[in-house]
Amino acid sequence: MGLRRGLAPAYHSDKCGWIDKDGSPAIPFRFNECRGMRDGIAAVRVGKAWGYINKQGDFLIWPRYEDAWLFSEGLAPAKKHGKWGFIDRSGERGDLKRQVRLYRPHQLVCYRAVIHARPAI
């Protein structure tokens, strides 16, 4: 994942956290899995549930998703009850009018791009 804005995800004793450019812990190693940080928000797994934290390691969205990916343009793909949909930074469903069943989050991002690329009728 690499160093982004001075922080990089790292593992210690089977837990994930973030280190700064000097290699010192910046966010404690308390997560089961980390999915990088974008726009100051990172997807993290605690037990079996995914949530989102800020650069200080505080939860913005408590873990409640089956799967979750990074934010982009204010939305992130997240899976709940077997369905993928977009959530905003508060954890509410984003701008899609319906949730869709897809197998890979990058397909969801492409689907969103196609929806917004359609000309107005």
What does this entry show, briefly?
This protein is mainly beta and 121 residues long. It has one helix at 105-117, and strands at 7-12, 15-20, 25-31, 33-38, 41-46, 49-54, 59-65, 67-68, 76-80, 83-87. The termini are far apart.
CATH architecture designation of the domain at 34-117:
Beta Barrel
Mean pLDDT figure: 79
Strand content: over 45%
Q: What is the percent of helical residues?
A: 10-25%
**Number of beta-strand segments:** 10
- Measured distance between first and last alpha carbons: 41 Å
- Give me the secondary-structure category: mainly beta
Task: Give a short account of the largest sheet.
Answer: 4 strands, antiparallel
Q: Which segments are poorly predicted (pLDDT under 50) over 5 or more consecutive residues?
A: 95-103, 109-121
SS summary, helix count: 1
Shape: globular
> How would you classify the quaternary structure?
single chain
Q: How does this structure look, described?
A:
The strands form 3 sheets. A 4-stranded antiparallel β-sheet has the order 4-5-6-7, with no helix packed on it. Strands 1-2-3 form a 3-stranded antiparallel β-sheet, with no helix packed on it. The chain has 121 residues and is mostly beta strands. 24% of the residues are buried. The C terminus is likely disordered. The radius of gyration is 15 Å and the shape is globular. It contains 1 helix and 10 strands. The longest helix is centred in the last third of the chain and has 13 residues. It has a domain of 84 residues: Thrombin, subunit H, CATH 2.40.10. 11% of the residues lie in helices and 46% in strands.
